[in-house]
Design goal:
- By secondary structure, this protein is mostly helical.
- It has a single domain, classed as MFS general substrate transporter like domains (Growth Hormone, Chain: A, Up-down Bundle).
- It has 15 helices and no strands.
- It is globular, with a radius of gyration of 20 Å.
- The protein starts with 15 loop residues before the first helix and ends in a 10-residue tail after the last helix.
- Keywords: Membrane, Transmembrane, Transmembrane helix, Transport.
Length: 402
């Protein structure tokens, strides 16, 4: 007989200060998995490696995150989510310190894998915020928390690039460990207690339900595929930017990090996108995200040799990524609150598998075909996304108004 999750207390409370705290937490923790992107050239130089090898290490980080999503995040449906978040933060601190102390590429690669696995706390926080959000405001709340996630991605590249230009690149990970330690102290006092009192199931039984959920909900499969495409296209660009800047302008990690600040447009747009997802069909907004990302690659291909073209393309690409992520999260979190962590796990697994493949193959194409190969790869991936969204999953609506 299958054991079911039992919810004894479904009271919900979420004020603006708690949403802000969750957004800040997501920003600080998710930054860990993106620190490597602007400093890939520095790592390759110190360890005497080819660019493609460092790209593979970046892929390991993304893969670690993806498998952490698949195996750890679902635990939020059977255990106290506050406790799970706090434990993950402790492990994230240890992983960052290992990267800081790494004497060679093998230890650094192992640390990168652990960083990916242990940095999934935001993906426990996101469904937790969605669960606590009042009905009719879920998209707005998720948009605010996801804007924090984007700030983490944005500032991680900037902080990493700038710090590596004045300090050894390892210092980035020491600072990361300190920041997460401070965050742990704040969350210990301020993070709300989990209102769900009882979850009668085992971890093994819970994991077995994940494939069943994927099979049962076409909208979940559609979101996972879309996340794969959207984030994959984003990482193809960001994983190769530092090499392109060095080739085109003789620039390095500092400039790559500063260009990442252009993603502030996506941060500012996230709450608005969340409100749009509450008012309109998220599927429509996801289509806009695909269009924007494709336009961005058109700009990169045609005008990327000019700094102005590169800047415009970055702004459009980050907007497209954010449109896709917020809208996908909104429809996924609207399926069934009792399985919100598992839904988020499946969606974000697809999302970061796309990111991992984008990082690896982006670096690979850069080595073989340069900037034209990078842009071509991004366009091909997005064409696949259009096919999946408009042809393969044209009518996957299983929840009201989604």
């Amino acid at each position: 007989m299958r054991k079911e999750i039992v919810v004894k207390n479904e009271s919900k409370s979420l004020n603006s200060s708690t949403v802000l705290l969750m957004a800040v937490s997501a920003a600080i923790v998710v930054a860990n998995i993106n620190y490597i992107q602007p400093i890939e050239a520095d790592i390759a130089s110190q360890f005497h490696l080819a660019n493609a090898v460092v790209g593979a290490v970046a892929m390991i980080t993304q893969l670690g995150y993806a498998f952490g999503l698949l195996l750890i995040v679902p635990m939020g449906d059977i255990m106290n989510r506050r406790t799970l978040i706090m434990r993950l933060l402790i492990l994230a601190i240890i992983s960052a310190l290992l990267a800081f102390l790494a004497p060679n590429i093998w230890v650094y690669a192992a640390a990168s894998l652990l960083i990916g696995i242990t940095s999934v706390a935001p993906q426990v926080i996101i469904p937790y915020a969605g669960f606590l959000a009042p009905d009719g405001q879920r998209g707005q709340v998720l948009g605010n928390v996801l804007s924090g996630l984007l700030v983490g991605v944005l500032l991680s590249r900037t902080v990493s690039g700038v710090l590596a230009s004045v300090l050894p690149w390892q210092a980035v990970y020491l600072i990361a460990a300190i920041l997460i330690g401070l965050l742990w102290l704040v969350l210990w006092k301020k993070l709300p207690q989990d209102p769900v009192a009882v979850r009668k199931t085992t971890y093994r039984a819970l994991i077995k339900t994940v494939p069943q959920l994927v099979k049962r909900y076409p909208v979940l499969r559609a979101s996972a595929v879309n996340g794969f495409v959207i984030f994959g296209a984003s990482n193809i660009f960001w994983a190769t930017l530092v090499f392109y800047l060095k080739h085109q302008y003789g620039w390095g990690s500092r400039e790559a990090g500063l260009l990442a600040l252009l993603g502030v447009t996506g941060v500012l747009a996230a709450p608005l996108i969340g409100r749009l997802a509450d008012r309109f069909r998220p599927r429509t907004i996801i289509g806009w995200g695909l269009v924007l990302s494709t336009v961005a690659y058109g700009v990169f291909a045609l005008f990327g040799t000019h700094l102005a073209g590169l800047i415009i393309g970055i702004v459009i690409l980050d907007l497209g990524t954010q449109f896709g992520q917020v809208a996908n999260q909104t429809r996924v979190q609207s399926i069934d609150p009792k399985a919100s962590s598992r839904f988020n796990s499946v969606f974000m697994f697809g999302y970061f598998m796309g990111g991992a493949m984008g990082s690896f193959f982006g670096n690979l194409l850069w080595g073989f075909a340069g900037w034209a190969g990078v842009c071509g790869l991004g366009v091909v991936l997005l064409v696949i996304g259009f096919y999946a969204h408009f042809v393969h999953y044209p009518r996957v609506v299983r929840v009201a108004n989604k």
